[in-house]
Amino acid sequence: MGSPFREITEENAKVYEEMILEFFEIFKARVIKHRDIKSEEVFNGRPYTASSAVNLGLIDKIGTYSDAVEEAKKLAKLPETVPVRELKPTKPKLLESLFGLSASRKTIILASQEILAIWPPPTLSLKH
After folding, report:
1. Which of 2, 17, 41, 101 shows its CA 20 to 30 Å from the CA of 127?
2. pLDDT tens-digit readout, 14-23
3. How many CA atoms lie within 13 A of 49 on its CB side?
4. How far is Cα 87 from Cα 72, in angstroms, rounded to an integer?
């Protein structure tokens, strides 16, 4: 599943669609829980630009990675001078790349894919 070298099967398409719908439901539940948004407009499945997301209340503001680090320090009530250590994911080893991802890497990837929930579920067409 997910190989760029094989045609997508109906079974794969169904799995992808179920995953995307699940990510969308996670996104929707988190927006309802953590944001004061009453409009169903944000749940129409379309992607938003950063400025549109601010206007809709999906995000607080637009900034850089450094801005986010500084904001995190403020929220944690840390001094401005506290050093920040950036943890970067390790590169997968050759055997991991050839034979699949480890369970922990799969978890990280699936969690990061929740971002995809802002897009509508795709309509998949299968070639016969």
Report:
1. 101
2. 988 999 999 9
3. 3
4. 15
